[in-house]
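Handoff note, outgoing to incoming analyst
You'll be picking up this chain. Sequence as last confirmed:
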Amino acid sequence: MSKKKIAGLGVLALLLVFIPWLVNNYVLQILVLTITYAILGLSFALTLKVGLPRFDVAAWWGVGAYTTAMLMLKAGMSFWLAALAGCVVSVVLGWLVFSVAIPRGMMVFLLFGMVLVLAFQQLFGSVAFFGGWGGTEVTPQPAIGSFVFGTKASLYYMGLFFLGLTVEVYRLLYTSKIGRAWTAVGSSVKLASSLGINVVRYRIANVLVGNFFIALAGSYLVAYTLVAVPDTFSFANSVYVMMYVVVGGLTHALTGPIIGAVVITFIPEYFRLAKQFEPIITAVAIILIIILLPHGFLGIYDRRLKPWYLRKSCRRVRS
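Most recent structure output, in case you need it:
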């Protein structure tokens, strides 16, 4: 890694650390939600690596949230153990579903995903054990010893840790042998199979890794809101997750979803005065972004800033 990149990352890290001192609680609240959506977007981008766009993100998001909330309320478990359990439950249930769906092709996988979102939302809303459509009871605030994550700043730092963990795990996977196999599967299933890559096995592994972190985002949401509500985990929110990746830039699996989550989360917040028109305004904004920036916001970097920087570097070398 070059010195400029290291310096840039250092400045970014300092900015992220000092943000709570630079903004008010309202902006911090938006940033907490942005972190949640960024983790979901990163997990959606993960499955694109193996050529499987997924419509079931909200379902596993809900599994993580409800498992965490129920274990804290019914079993008196700490947030950290309940969150880990939520991630494990999401992976185990995912394995049961995907071991059936993925071998049968992409269309079956997509249909399973849509059905799962509707089924889980109905389950959470209809069964009294989960609190019904009004949501669960209020859960205890997460804590480490005597320190309680009771402020927006502390929850922001918790989310920053979860987001950093997600990015680092995905980065390590992308640069590993597993990541190269995923890229091969996403490029051409037939070619990957001819090279001896077990497409089904690698796809299942990919989606289950995504399930783990999607559930983690659900646990983090419970840490912030202290409740789990069925309407949060709707099919519409699965569609929004796709938009985070498209708006940020499909070719940037790590930075694209984060940029997209920031843009799509902050746009509606500036139109709160016209709450009833918010979905329309957001939809129009996303359509304009897709038309004007077909490669996402990071496409500007790929097509303009990066070539300019490379030309500048070449001139320096020649001189």
